[in-house]
DNA sequence: TTTAGGG
DNA sequence: CCCTAAA
């Protein structure tokens, strides 16, 4: 039984238009950056949210006697699924079809949770596969997968102990912040809000909200908000399980756009500066940072040192290339053997619904089916091939996901249609270790403009040979630069702001190396003709005369081309590369060059003789 | 801004 | 193609 829900997490990918140098407005950049930040969300948040929704659905479900895995639960019924699919939310079942195995996905994102009345959901995000939702650790904690409390968490036993609740309560004092909330709302604060636990990266409830009221003002009635979604799950063992989730999650899930916490979790948003209070949320940030920043700090630093990457500037080559990697999400709920014992009493949560579970415990297993990786800045050399691109993309995404998922990269589009070139990421079947890069993908991917960092490095850019690949990039080793990819999580936009993105960014104006556009024969023809007429010292005139409409050809380009033409004409045909230029043209090049050189020589030493 | 040349 | 000193 699988609950399938297409999640609306999408990165509102942006693409800075190919604005002429120096004409990009500051305002435009600010907009870009803003969007990046607002769309930030990471996988574990997503999973946690899904878990929240599952609980909500469960709560609202009339079929209370079903276990989460129950097939008769409307929420998980095929009809429901179908309905969502018909709703245009996409059928990822179809998408998933063809995948040999998604077991790893399920495993990777398994979430174990256990609730108790008035508990809170926490997610741990040390690793995508270690997401844990804890509801009221004072009672017990169920771990999914590995022990997520790897640090400072030794107190928590993997298997719940009868006395654990007491154990926790004895050790952990209730922070003042939630004492207040308790007073205000009459809700018993969870002991898990302790410094002790906060230090271990416990994340706050994965609340998703379009308004900042919840996240930003935990002490002003926010608990009410939290409690609004309380759902009590009464197990057959009479253990009450309560998980607090935000009802809005569901609504938001329905929408395609999630505005996520990070933006709202600025320190300044907390009116209470008490260090005992902040850690809960603060740790979330830290956790996030560990997940993201730490991983990429090296590469990012490297790139920035070379001044090739900006958090808000052209991530692309300005030619329309963009990467929209996708991962897919699938959710499922199932029972589990991870027994949780202890717990007692009945739920006292008003209005809370109760559910009886056949098993002692249950897990909500979530598997990511589809979500868009926030953003990927990938640096590739001019000589990049589809294959190297794929490798790069895969590497980046894998890094983002912390290796919790195996990602397969599927190329969409053709290398000769870079405008539509995309990569789709899918869970990589464990049993199909097929090479990720096929040979036919190692064709040169020329039109892609590599960032400046690729410049002045390594070998000369290979010539693009439209006819045959005597220059096939076949054995082309992937240049080091191609690995210098930088996923730029939106959350790090702030941190990245350290770099020169105030005012005018160098990169946005001069950084992007232009796309290489070899001169065609006809262009050479036009150039030769113009030079024959105007000479070799009036490139501006040549430009106006023969390439006025060719925006991408500057007079410098023409001058350079003439230079190479002269060189080409002088070398043996065997040494020439690229699209062959008719010998006739080359002859004219030589003669014209000789003529105008002579004219120039004549004019210089003795102008009056002309 | 253009030229002229080196990288 | 890029970068730039010079003009």
From TrEMBL:
Q: Does the keyword DNA-binding apply?
A: yes
Q: Where is this region: Disordered?
A: 60-88, 333-352, 429-484
- Alphabetically list the UniProt keywords: DNA-binding
**Lineage: superkingdom:** Eukaryota
Give the Gene Ontology MF terms in alphabetical order: telomeric DNA binding
Query: Matching Gene3D superfamilies, A to Z?
Result: 1.10.246.220
Instruction: Please name the SUPFAM superfamilies in this protein's record.
Output: Homeodomain-like (SSF46689)
Myb-like domain location, by residue?
A: 511-566
Which ranges are annotated Polar residues under compositional bias?
61-75, 429-441
UniProt biased composition (Low complexity): 459-477
Q: Does the keyword DNA-binding apply?
A: yes
Q: Which residues form the HTH myb-type domain?
A: 511-570
Q: What is this protein called?
A: Uncharacterized protein
Naturally occurring in which organism (per UniProt) = Spirodela intermedia
Q: What taxonomic lineage is listed for the species of origin?
A: Eukaryota, Viridiplantae, Streptophyta, Embryophyta, Tracheophyta
């Amino acid at each position: 039984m699988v609950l399938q829900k297409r999640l609306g997490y999408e990165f509102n990918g942006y693409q800075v238009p190919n604005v002429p140098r120096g004409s990009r407005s500051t305002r435009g950049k600010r907009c870009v950056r803003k969007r990046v930040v607002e769309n930030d969300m990471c996988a574990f948040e997503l999973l946690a949210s899904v878990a929240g929704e599952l609980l909500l659905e469960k709560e609202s479900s009339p079929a209370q006697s079903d276990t989460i895995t129950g097939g008769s639960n409307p929420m998980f019924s095929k009809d429901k699924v179908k309905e969502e699919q018909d709703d245009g939310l996409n059928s990822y079942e179809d998408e998933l079809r063809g995948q040999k195995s998604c077991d790893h996905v399920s495993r990777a994102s398994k979430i174990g949770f256990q609730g108790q009345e008035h508990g809170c959901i926490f997610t741990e995000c040390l690793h995508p596969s270690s997401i844990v939702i804890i509801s009221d650790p004072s009672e017990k904690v169920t771990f999914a997968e590995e022990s997520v409390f790897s640090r400072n968490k030794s107190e928590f036993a993997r298997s719940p102990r009868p006395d654990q609740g007491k154990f926790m309560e004895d050790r952990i004092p209730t922070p003042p912040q939630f004492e207040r909330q308790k007073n205000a709302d009459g809700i018993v604060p969870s002991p898990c809000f302790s410094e002790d636990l906060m230090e271990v990266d416990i994340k706050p409830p994965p609340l998703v909200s379009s308004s900042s009221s919840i996240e930003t003002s935990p002490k002003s009635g926010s608990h009410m908000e939290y409690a609004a979604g309380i759902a009590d799950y009464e197990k057959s063992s009479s253990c009450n399980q309560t998980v607090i989730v935000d009802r809005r999650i569901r609504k938001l899930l329905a929408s395609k756009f999630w505005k996520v916490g990070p933006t709202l979790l600025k320190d300044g948003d907390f009116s209470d500066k008490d260090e005992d209070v902040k850690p809960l949320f603060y740790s979330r940030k830290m956790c996030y940072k560990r997940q993201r920043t730490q991983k990429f700090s090296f590469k990012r630093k490297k790139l920035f040192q070379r001044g090739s990457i900006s958090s808000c500037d052209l991530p692309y080559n300005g030619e329309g290339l963009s990467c929209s990697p996708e991962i897919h999400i699938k959710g499922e709920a199932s029972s589990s053997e991870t027994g949780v014992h202890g717990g007692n009493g009945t739920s006292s949560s008003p209005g809370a619904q109760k559910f009886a579970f056949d098993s002692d415990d249950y897990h909500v297993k979530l598997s990511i089916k589809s979500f868009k990786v926030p953003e990927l800045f990938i640096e590739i050399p001019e000589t990049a091939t589809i294959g190297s691109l794929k490798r790069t993309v895969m590497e980046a995404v894998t890094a983002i996901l912390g290796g919790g998922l195996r990602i397969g990269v599927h190329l969409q589009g053709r290398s000769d249609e870079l405008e539509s070139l995309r990569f789709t990421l899918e869970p990589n079947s464990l049993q199909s270790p097929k090479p990720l890069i096929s040979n036919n993908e190692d064709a040169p991917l020329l039109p892609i403009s590599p960032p400046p960092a690729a410049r002045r490095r390594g070998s000369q850019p290979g010539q693009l040979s439209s006819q045959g690949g005597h220059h096939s990039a076949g054995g082309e080793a992937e240049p080091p630069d191609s690995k210098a990819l930088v996923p730029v999580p939106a959350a790090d936009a702030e941190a990245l702001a350290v770099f020169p993105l105030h005012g005018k960014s160098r990169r946005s104006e001069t950084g992007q190396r232009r796309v290489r556009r070899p001169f065609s024969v006809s262009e050479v023809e036009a150039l030769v003709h113009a030079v024959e007429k105007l000479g070799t010292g009036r490139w501006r005139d040549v430009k106006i005369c023969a390439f006025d409409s060719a925006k991408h050809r500057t007079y410098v380009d023409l001058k350079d081309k003439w230079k190479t033409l002269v060189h080409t004409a002088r070398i043996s045909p065997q040494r020439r590369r690229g699209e062959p230029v008719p010998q006739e043209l080359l002859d004219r090049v030589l003669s014209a060059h000789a003529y105008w050189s002579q004219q120039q020589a004549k004019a210089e030493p003795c102008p009056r003789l002309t």
